[in-house]
Amino acid sequence: MKAQERKQVAFMTYVLGGAGAYQGRDLAAAHRRLILEKGLEEEHFDLVAGHLLTTLSELQVPTPLIEEAMGIVATTKPVIFGRV
Q1: Could you cite one Gene Ontology molecular function of this protein (predicted)?
Q2: Which of 2, 7, 74, 81 has the fewest beta carbons under 10 Å from its own?
């Protein structure tokens, strides 16, 4: 789980405009096996995004920043699930 945590932090830092370059695989390739072999579905994406929303809210991040972050995260969903 720690490895997944590191990947998530690196990716979120990248998509939200933080320092450093994301060096992971492209999103479609990174999730392909999970979709095909493990049954990853858009519902799972929505649950993870919901956890992010809850966390940002609990940390009292200003609403405009939460909306911006969630909007950016939402753009990754069609890429992951091959709807681009």
Answers
A1: oxygen binding
A2: 2
Domain ranges of the chain: 26-80
pTM value is 0.82
d(Cα 14, Cα 59) in Å, to the nearest integer?
Answer: 20
What token pair was written down for 28? 């479609």
- With beta carbons less than 8 A apart as the criterion, state whether 70 and 49 touch: yes
Q: Alpha-carbon distance 61 to 55, whole Å? A: 9
Euclidean distance between CA atoms 34 and 31, whole angstroms: 5
What pLDDT, in 10s, does the model give residues 10-61?
A: 878 877 888 776 677 788 998 999 999 999 999 999 999 999 999 999 999 9
72: closest CA among 82, 61, 62, 64?
Answer: 64
